[in-house]
Fold each of these.
Amino acid sequence: MAAAGSPRVLRLLALHGYRQDESSFRERTGSLRKNLRKRAELVVISAPLSVPEPEEEGRGGGDGQREDPRGWWFSNREKSSFNAMDETASCAGLEESLDAVAKAFSELGPFDGLLGFSQGAAFVAMLCSLKQQGDPRFQFDFAILVAGFKSRASEHVDFYKEPIAVPSLHVFGDTDRVIPRVMSQELAGSFVNPVLLTHSGGHYIPVGSAEKKVYFPFLDSFRKSGDV
């Protein structure tokens, strides 16, 4: 509990990357959670879709081999697989994921913001679009999208029809070989006045001193003093 008059700690719902799960993502965000602990708490959930094994690891395909690989949607309906580069007419699983996040909001919320990584960040952008469209299930103030991208599925085009006015911070690496920075830049272009944070590394969530100089002010702009 925060002391009277001090800004409260924000609550962020965190969505992992493809072929990760709650446990592996908590592991990967250890440094981030430690550095943000006075400002934000991350509540991590697992995606509802189980990724079949074995699956060939490819460019844009996965974010890690784990015991319980999960995903937010499949770009290849027949193979129940996903690749960020896939241009497809029909996907599978998104409705189940929307229901899972809605359940998290209902049972674990409220949440001040969303944080997503890779496929999770792409999904966060869709949730921002739904919030803007007035979907009552998803009530939050801002989003942090790390290594995000726009879905290339034709059935997802409506998510990007209108500029998304939800306040957003977009983080991406210059040498990311899973989700090239141009894809993250394209997603950021779908938002109104996005905050951009680039780093020299690859496909991960950076938590250096340079990044904290962006994370902290962004989060602080949503922290209200006087909450107890």
Amino acid sequence: MLSWSWLSRWPLILVFLILAAFFPSSVDCLAIPFFDFESRDNVCESLHLCTLECLRTVPCLAVHPDGKVLQLCPFFLNDYGARSFPFTQEHFESINLEDEIIKLRLRSIDSPIFLGELLQCDSLSQIGNENQSIPTSDLDGMPVGLYLCYDGFKEGFMADLQDIHQKCLDKGRKFEIVLVPLPFGRHYNPKSFCKRVRRYALKDSRSSSWWTFPFNDKICRTLWRIFHCYTEDQLIILPHAGRIGDLWGRHVASFYGIDAYPFTRDVIVERKVRDLRSVTLGQLLGDTFMSDLHNKNVLLYLDDPTCFFEDNSIFSSLNVVQREFQVKYPDVKVVFVPFEPILSVSKRQLNKMGWHLLPPELGESIMKHIFMIEAYPDEGVRSTLVAFDKDGMILSRSAYNRLPRNSTSPASLFDDTLGAEILNEMKDYIY
């Protein structure tokens, strides 16, 4: 009979509750045979767990010498491997902190993380010719995609990546791929999984120039954890030549294609900001409506006319601060663009507030220019407050989030947050 006191005498022990008949004879560890119900039930009862729950949800326990159970969930072994020891929560938190630092450095200009440091190796070999190698430092100055292959040969990203890589080569754009097999999701044998992935990749000759490195359990599990490769392949773009990296490389490449080269969100943001600022407020509204807005900070408020009769947050907040704007900040002007014609009583209310009223037919063209309508095909128009500087350049598409609450100073309304807003909105439709 396997007693709890007997277990606690060991310096530190992992207790595996076996769901098969026996461990393979080559595994050097203690085993409870499947038919030994008494011993198995004793372990579960010692932990105040029923046998069925124990078998289904707790296949692995980490036990301290004093008898304290450190871990019940088996997933820590998959995520941390041999680094799990000594199995304490404090130890896992310290590893997680290291992971967060790596993610931050991936998006850092001042302290970027390069390929050699991330993979902890000095050279890579070509999967089509293992005798062909290259120092990892030679790839630091060019775009590198770290292809984390969870299951590329079945439902993964490999075929799409082969197409993307070929298009880069056809256009003369440098883009190196480093293949990293991750055999953890379905508990494959690492050696056979690596061979299988490489063999599958080489079925398409376009993959022959990809790079790889000897399997390293610690590094591969670190990448598996950091980039959440729990269900699908990922493509991580590493920092290069003054550019930050991006852990969304797969989604950017899939959504935007070759136009997103080198496949970072920042490239898309820069392009969107440039396009938005290519048209000024004067060009949007025309000379007729710009006579009173020249050299002014403008808040362009787009909404449905029913906002006058509802508890509308944008309208209510603007209404509260508008009178003080008129007295203290004459350089701030509010322009209201309705989505449909408004009643004469509402026009009189606008005149009292000192707002400029534009015809509703301008609303659709303004929305098409200011918002990425192609990215929101089902949303249509929406209420918002857009900030423009004195030169008519757009600064923010959601300035309503910074409407004054305790102070009526409008300074923050005209912060340049356009790029950050676009980056945040991309999460809603690219992922």
Amino acid sequence: MNSSTPNDDKNMAPQPTNGAPSQPQTVPAAAPSSSDSDSSKGVAPGSTNQYVVGVPPQQDMPPAWSTGLFECFDDLPTFIITAFAPCVTFGQIAEMVDRGQQSCGLYAMLHAGIMYFTGCGCLLSAYYRIKMSHLYRLPDDPLINILVHLICEPCALCQEYRELQARGFNMKLGVGWRNQSQEIQQTGGVMVPPKVPGGMTR
């Protein structure tokens, strides 16, 4: 009498009934789940673990002027003109920012008139600094731009003048917007990277 338990029946492989030789059955080993393998390595499922060693991540450069505020002596003739007649430098800047809508002389007379009657010509030039900041993606904090013109308008105007020069504008008196190159008139000036301070020297 065969006394077999149910467990023994489950462990026994089924015998062929047609007389064919039995073939060993291969049971595939259970592959480790992706969640187990990824969790043991600290990697989220579905993510690729590809890193470049020694290369810092790409970061957008913060907006900055191409020259500093107090680099006025780099262009001494412009600094002298701006110190004694800021309306002239402002007229040149405003004409380029407004893409030649009005002439340099008209902007200069407007600035001089406001300066003569109210003494607040710096507010007009500060408005154009803010407008220029939006146009070229420069630091556009309105309060800072207004304070710069209130405290040191000649330095601010010289910085804006140099910025337009760095972007390819011909800022000589008498040239104006109409006599700029076709490329400048179409693009409004090239993008220039901010100045990077040099390394330490002995």
